[in-house]
Amino acid sequence: MAKLKAPVEKNDMIEVVIEDLGINGEGIGRYEGYTLFVDGGLPGEKVEVKVVKVGKNYGFAKLLHIEVPSPDRVDPKCQVARTCGGCQLQHMSYPAQLEFKTKKVREAIKRIGKLEDAVVNDIMGMEEPWYYRNKVSYPVRSEKGLTKIGFYAKNSHRVIEHSSCYIQESRNQLIVAAIKEWMHQFTITPYNEDNLSGMVRHIMIRYSKHLDKFHVTLVTNKKKLKHLPKLTEQLVALGFIDGISISLHLEKNNIILGETTEVIWGNGYLREMIDDYTYHISPKSFFQVNPIQTKVLYDQVRAMANLQSDETLMDLYCGIGTIGIYLAKNAKRTIGVEIVEEAIEDAYHNAELNKLEQMEFYVGPAEEMIPYLYEEKGITADVVVVDPPRKGCEVALLDTIIKMKPKRMVYVSCDPATLARDLKYMWENGYEVVEIQPVDMFPMTVHVETVCLLKRI
Ligand code: SAH
Q: Fewer C-beta within 10 Å: the chain N or C terminus?
């Protein structure tokens, strides 16, 4: 069948009604049946747009004017909310954001998971959805001869500076200002991605709510960076620094940290507490970015796992051992698996800190390590927790879990689409989905975390 021609052309100015929000928070409008993505538009709004790109099946348009605003529309707190790539939903009220995220999970479960009967609970949101993040990575670049430290603009590597960020700790700005001043004072150059020149690539800052202190990691492109004692002096003078590290990164890629990280002042680890548990976090290890909601999430995991004292727990994709440590007291044996070696060093350290010395950890990809532990070593588990990155679990891992026959599985996911795909696979292989609970770990952004309980039928 021949495709109909799109009813719009590039640069047309038209009026569109926004009907829905896409998974990245973009408004989806329709014009004579043709789909137009309108960044910044909210469902129910009548907007004037300029068409910027016309494809066969859909196009993109720029929001020019809102003729009839949605009752969910609010003024973003942040001046750069539209240009910065960090917050996609600041123009939407927080209750509406929560509704959008619950719906996103429900739709994925239905459409991709084909789990018509699965109940998805309403998302658990934050009381105060601002200033929640404990980690930030600022690219350091040069623009027209000036050093720029900020966030990348949407879909680009142009750095947008800001005077305050409403989802980060506000003292990050003082750290950035001190580093910028030092760079200026000693002519320390920002990184240039095109010719790999310049000295400072990124600044990573981590914050501990428990200590009320910060760890700063300067990512550098130069083996022997000069004037570091002066930088240390200026940062320490701020009064809230716990440690400073230098990460040497000479490769051309988009990974933030380099291969080696060296502590130049204070502690090499940041210490955080979630509930009664203490965690040491080294710069390279993953740690949840929202400490308040991490407790909410882990409490859900613990309740769903419902461990009995004679049961073995496997905590897969365990990072620094966080979930396993949170649950280990209720289990007979706890085994963690994680791909990053430094994270496993932290995990052993953390088990010791929390007096859970009997915990075991293995370094390697879960999809290889679990088949090995099960097939070669005969290790099984009663309860398996998985917390994979966005791409979800590899089939080789799910197949081994299915063979291992744990009674319960708790799936923690940061991507509803891959979660739905994996739940479907488990459902087809003898597991029923008992509960699905989204948790808002990332207010103002489109991201959503979900925790699910599966039981062996
Ligand atoms: N459960 C932890 C970490 C979750 S983030 C927490 O709540 O803190 C996901 C983790 O999976 C990261 O630490 C990442 O390094 C790890 N990872 C990524 N791919 C992996 C794989 N194939 N096998 C094992 N771990 C992996």
A: N
